[in-house]
Amino acid sequence: MYSLCIVEIHIVLNSEPQLRQTDIIFDFDILVFQCPPVTAATDFAHVEMATEYGLERRHLLFFMDIGSREVRCGGIAHNPDSNWTTQIARNMCDMWDGFLLGKRYLIHDRDPVFNKRFDMIFESIGIEIKKLPPFTPMMNSRMENFLQKFLLF
Asked: Counting runs of H as helices and runs of E as strands, what totals does the chain give?
């Protein structure tokens, strides 16, 4: 139903939609099921920590190698911003021991901290960014499943 609304809006504006919903699903199926060794995913988790000053929220940025299902924590921040995520991207692309070396695709959602500079770091080493469609977090299901299990502990 959501995709029909987008198509109707494009028709009203006299422009053709670029991708159909089936094209988007097919594209992610190919990445996750047919190209897992060269695909990675990233997402945020939020954790409440009890400190001497009360409850504090921490944001954790995780990266997952879809093929091996190895997960690395890119960083932990109290208040993440685009500068912080850009530095984490540089760390993940380090030419000696970068976690994402040899990958072709990176899947992430449309969180505002994943800005153009974040994407450009990965594109500079040949990683193609695949942003999830709006309101579809379960298309990054392997990462979401990890985060659910991680937050249970």
From this structure: 5, 5
Residue identified by tokens 């939020």 is 46
- Do the Cβ atoms of 45 and 62 come closer than 8 Å? yes
Q: For residue 37, give every residue at least 6 positions away whose Cβ sits within 8 Å of its Cβ, in sequence order, or none.
A: 66, 67, 68
pTM: 0.76
Please tell me the predicted confidence (pLDDT) of residue 117: 94
Note the pLDDT tens digit of each residue in 22-74: 445 546 666 666 677 888 999 998 888 888 989 999 999 999 998 898 999 99
Give the span between the Cα atoms of 114 and 70, in whole angstroms. 21
Dist CA 71 CA 65 (whole Å): 6
Q: pLDDT tens digit string along 124-139?
A: 999 999 888 888 777 7
| Cα separation, 19 vs 132, whole angstroms | 13
> For residue 102, what are its two tokens?
């040899």
Tokens standing for 142? 């392997």
Residue 18 DSSP class: S
Phi/psi for 105 (5° steps) reads -135, 145
